[in-house]
Amino acid sequence: AGLPVPPPLCLSTAAYDVFVNGNRLREKIGLELYRKSLGDMRWEEIWDASLRIQLLFMKGGIPEELEQEILSAIQDKFGDQQLVIRSSAPEEDGAGGSFAGLHESYINVSGTGEILKKIKKVWASLWSDRAILYRQELGLEVVKSRMAVVVQPFIEGQVSGLLFTQNPLDEAQVVIEAVHGLNQGLVDGAVAPDRWLVNRNKLMIERHTAPENRESWFVRGASGGIICDSIDSDKGGSPPLDATSVDEIVRLGLNIEDHYRAPQDIEWTLADGEWCILQSRPITVGSGQTEGDKRAWYLSLTRSYENLLQLWKKITGQLLPEMDLDSARLAAVNFDEMTETQLAMELRRRATLSEQWTSVYWSDFIPFAHGVRLFGEVYNDLVEPDDPFEFVTLLTGQTMLSTERNGLLKTCAQLAAADDVLQEHLRQGTIENIGGNDFQAAIERLRSHFSVDFVGVGNPEMVDRLISSMILQYALLPGGSPPAAPAERERLEQVYFEKADKKNDMDPSVLLHMARDSYRIRDDDNIHIGRIGQELERASEYGRHRLRSLGTAVAFGTSAVNLALLLEGKPIADHAATVKESEAQGSSPKRVQARQLQGQPASRGVATGVARVIEQMTDLSEFKKGEILVIDAIDPTMTFFAPLAAAIIERRGGMLIHGAIIAREYGIPCITGVAQATDYIATGDEVIVDGYLGICTVKGKEDSAANTAA
Model's pTM, two decimal places? Predict the structure, then answer.
């Protein structure tokens, strides 16, 4: 077609098959993905499986004959040129959906070792969590996926961008986005582009929108890859394209559309005055997506280094201080002097604020957890450890709000241990009657600073019983701080920095610092947002109290919005508690007896103890020190109880779930991703938890009794 495209060399899917079969990876991939239904796995658990699979690829060797064939073909075609190693899965850009952005490509690659390594990384990217999830959504058989690789010369453009030959929002327009330098910043969202809207028929510019600033661009790294750098003021002061260049790229794009007979999404670069088309694919937005299409979310599962740096600054410098300021303002409000109308307005204000912060939590805080995954992927790429989760050791041992809070609980327990009257009040669950300035000050700090009121329980008396039970159990814990392993952390840190010293696309110190904050905030953010939820609950409880004083009975589960309506004398729908469907259907099925359950190791160690199965929050009041905590998923407010457990078993999987994080901080064995754990294990069963292998052995009550008798 005479289009300006860099000459390609394709490594077919047959090369992928030779590598996979030579390293016997197909069976190992099947074990990871068939162990549990993908539909039952959360993103954290799928990421864990993905990380294990990708490390298998990186540690695998390319068979010698295939390696020589690849290197010979590359040398013959490109000599010693810098290269681009691109992914090309067979399913990409078909009628069923586009995989653009789901797999990895690498820019500015040179040297035999790096070329082979990047080819393996492209193959491995077939098993990223986002690619696995997307294939599942399309109904493809995930384990049969294969990957081809396209090798091309690296074109170092001075201007790069994207072109949509048809605006998804207006079919009469072409859309151009352009940046100075290379395309990576535009694709990742780290560099804001100039944007042009061009009339398709008249080829006239209808609108040009400049970014707020042009302060940075992506350029070739001296030792490989690409880096983000500051742009000089002269270049940054002008748009990347002039009117003539806009006209040229639009005409070229429309020629490509004519060739493929479909609107195109085109990636291009302009190098030394010559246009070069890097990729072109059919536009899928607006033409093939359905309302339930989650491709955009799957793409968001990867955040670039630059994007995460911006998010890090926003969270630590803006969002956390603002959230804490809001919760402090709410805590200072006294409801006693409010009329019913004013109280209704306050409830609505708090409900709205809670919704706003919950939205921010999902849009900003959850994505920032990917700082941990980025560090894990970089660490595994550099070090190639035997354990794909070795990097987590570098993130532990920090001061976290949850460990601070648990230390305060220990202080309360120590005060109670020396006071018989305090102990009796705790046994009765009547902590509101406890005197003593030190104890009450500690309780008040627990309530105000650490959101210890168990949002969602709704019953103040039950909250007091839970707090009392928790303090009594903390009194049984040994003294001292959570275990630490500074020597091992220091050793791994030294290994990491020695390996990372050869790279220049990410600052290794900044990456580690960001990953540690990402890991800590992954747990801390729930306490911060819990303060907002607690203040909403405080106002709701006062609203229920006011309504009862006016003769209106209100259920604990009544929402803040409905409480506001009742305070204004307006009718609401029936808010009485409803019987759960499972309860209405009669008794639960007979429990299946299992001997050994397989999950994933999340915190190392071995422990034996009696199981305590937690079905609902109120069950925690029965939890005793030294029991095995068996639960569907540890809610952030439940991490108070983790230090009391001999071990933790969760149905929900992942190294980044709250139970796993707190277990590692306290050196408690933890297994996650145990399917139907609460069905196969009953309270009172004797359980052996192996946090090294991820295996749980259930001895049962009868076995335990027999062993005791013997």
Answer: 0.73
170-179, 364-373, 437-446: least confident range: 437-446
**pLDDT greater than 60 at residue 660:** yes
State whether 134 and 170 are in the same domain: no
Q: Is residue 509 part of a domain?
A: no
Q: Do residue 64 and residue 207 come from a single domain?
A: no
As a 3-state breakdown, the chain gives helix, strand, coil percent values, each rounded to 5, of 50, 15, 35
E strands along 582-694, which residues?
Answer: 596-598, 600-603, 606-614, 628-631, 647-650, 670-672, 686-690
Cα–Cα nearest to 653, from 9, 40, 27: 40
Residue 305 placed within a domain: no
Whether residues 141 and 197 share a domain: the answer is no
Question: For a pLDDT cut of 70, what percent of the chain falls above it?
Answer: 85
What is the Cα–Cα distance from 584 to 564, expressed in whole angstroms? 31
Specify which residues 152 forms β-bridges with: 84
Give the pLDDT confidence score for residue 430 in this predicted structure. Answer: 74
The tens digit of pLDDT for each residue in 626-645 reads 999 999 888 766 677 788 89
What torsion do the CA atoms of 618, 624, 627, 631 make, to the nearest 10 degrees?
10
The range of the structural domain enclosing residue 607 comes to: 596-709
Residue 518 lies in a domain: no
Return the SS3 of 422. Answer: helix
- Asked if residue 454 has pLDDT above 80, the reply is no
* Interval 307-366: pLDDT, tens: 899 999 999 999 999 999 999 999 999 999 999 999 999 999 999 999 999 999 988 998
Please tell me the distance from the alpha carbon of residue 434 to that of residue 404, in angstroms, as a whole number.
23
The answer to whether residue 316 sits within a structural domain is no
CATH number at residue 629: 3.50.30.10
Which range is least confidently modeled, 126-135, 204-213, 559-568, 576-585?
576-585
Which of 26-30, 270-274, 279-283, 579-583 ranks highest by mean pLDDT? 270-274
CATH of the domain at 224: 3.30.470.20
Residue 570: pLDDT over 80: yes
Q: Is 605 in contact with 695 (CB distance < 8 Å)?
A: no
| DSSP codes joined into one string, 27-69 | HHHHHHHHSS-GGG--HHHHHHHHHHHHHHHHHSPPPHHHHHH
d(CA 667, CA 663): 6
Q: In this structure, are 73 and 173 located in the same domain? A: no
Identify the CA nearest to 680 among candidates 598, 557, 581, 584: 598
Residues whose CB is less than 8 angstroms from the CB of residue 171 and which lie 6 or more positions away in sequence, other chains included: 200
Q: Are residues 252 and 346 in the same domain?
A: no
The listed range with the strongest mean pLDDT (35-44, 516-525, 697-706) is 516-525
- The answer on 436 and 350 residing in a single domain is no
User: What are the residues facing 228 on neighbouring strands?
Assistant: 218
Count of domains forming the chain: 5
Q: How many Å apart are CA 224 and CA 106, to the nearest integer?
A: 10
Q: Label residue 133 exposed, middle or buried (CB < 10 Å: 0-12, 13-18, 19+).
A: buried
> What gap in Å lies between CA 400 and CA 148, rounded to an integer?
44
What is residue 459's predicted lDDT score, i.e. its pLDDT?
A: 61
d(CA 618, CA 429): 13
The total of other beta-carbon atoms located within 10 Å of residue 576's CB is 8
The per-residue pLDDT for 584 is 36
Assess whether 416 and 468 both reside in one domain: yes
Instruction: Verify that 20 and 142 share a domain, yes or no.
Output: yes
CA dihedral 255, 256, 258, 263 (to 10 degrees): -120
Are 546 and 425 within 8 A, CB to CB? no
